[in-house]
Specification:
The protein is of the alpha/beta class. It has two domains: 221 residues, Alpha-Beta Complex (Spore Coat Polysaccharide Biosynthesis Protein SpsA, Chain A), CATH 3.90.550.10; 195 residues, Hexapeptide repeat proteins (UDP N-Acetylglucosamine Acyltransferase, domain 1, 3 Solenoid), CATH 2.160.10.10. It is 18% helix and 31% strand. The protein contains nine helices and 42 strands. The strands form seven sheets. A twelve-stranded mixed beta sheet has the order 12-15-18-21-24-27-30-33-36-39-41-42, covered by helices on one side. It has a nine-stranded parallel beta sheet with strand order 14-17-20-23-26-29-32-35-38, with no helix packed on it. Strands 5-4-1-6-10-7-11 form a seven-stranded mixed beta sheet. Strand 41 and strand 42 form a beta hairpin. It is elongated, with a radius of gyration of 30 Å. The relative contact order is 0.07.
Amino acid sequence: MKITAVLLAAGQGTRMKSDLPKVLHPLCGKPMIWHVLEALKEAATEPPVVVVGHGAGAVTEYLGDSARTVLQKPQLGTAHAAMQAESLLRGKTDLVILTYADMPLLRGETFRRLVDAQRLNPGPLSLLTVIADDPRGFGRIVRKPDGTVQAIVEEYVATPEQQKIKELNVGAYCFNAEWLWEALKRIEKNPKKGEYYLTDVVEIAVRDNLPVQAVLHDDFIETIGINTRVHLSEAEAAMRARLNRDLMLNGVSMRDPASTYIDAGVKIGRDTILMPNTFIHGNTVIGERNVIGPNTIIRDTTIGNGCKILASVLEGAVLEDEVDIGPFARLRKGAHLKSHVHMGNFGEVKDSVLHEGVKMGHFSYIGNAVIGANTNIGAGTITCNYDGEKKHPTTIGRDVFIGSDTMLVAPLTLGDGARTGAGAVVTKDVPEDTLVVGMPARAIRKLERKKKG
């Protein structure tokens, strides 16, 4: 059986008060439409169709190859939006899951339950409902004595008695596809709003004596729709709690989950401990047995096993195993710290590789450099990599000792075992096993390197 999801994403979202299309507003690091599409993958068998309208260009560009798009223009209501998918899907799918792109908390398993209900339903559609004291503008569900749905009554036309009904229409449906296309054509324009409403398909089915099934969901939070930034913040908190819970159930420790902020899609290994006020964003992958935070921001970074990261900022970096950094360290794009590197407080690394066992003292900047294994970078060391027009590389060998407050004026190479005196300004290459001092630095003697182990 072919099952296709149709996602309605054409609304303007005026209550968001934003130039950004509503469905592209981020939720735990991903646009809200991404969350809906990810959930739908668990229930659908075919590529999804997204009905776009307001901000169609931006939404279509974001979706790329992840979905087919069809334009609703003019925008004449939800039934009219659903009709736009007929040209792509008629005769090509058996069931249609139809829902809204501003309901990002719905889970894949919830959509699967809805599909399973429709598979067993002799009638043309099944819909998701929820019991709640706060209706949030949702339509009320009126049931027949046999438990099937009699009607969906929208809030603005509900009688006082109907307004007391606590079972609400969530806005997620599963249809027999061929019946849907014909039913949409039978919907009449709403005389008050001048639009065609999808909920009127229930009336059509009931009129034809066809059963409409309701799948009652037990989690109101999951059914939150987003119309304002207040709703967005509520959904953000709910999604963050869900993501954190899943991570903790898979072996990640959080001292205070409420102050731990992790984007959707971040991967974290077991026995890693996240301290309060830690923010982990983007395409970040973290291994096992790490201690991260407190007060740490990590984005688009790969971290190995057994690392300790204290009160630092990492963006676009790679850390291998047993790396120790912070507090107040900053790794910028292209920073690659290999195993057993130590980086002290108030240091910064950009577009550089620090090989195994490098120790980088505090108050130092390393940019566009390659640092050899077991080299010591003294406090206050700066790679002067920018001459006002171009960036230049610095290459430092193994077992080098850079004295405090050394200026390394790139392009520059220091050989294995070289040393610089405190305050040296190095403007020329330094041969291996050579000590240079002064401003500008000059060689004063050859050194005998101590052999390790």
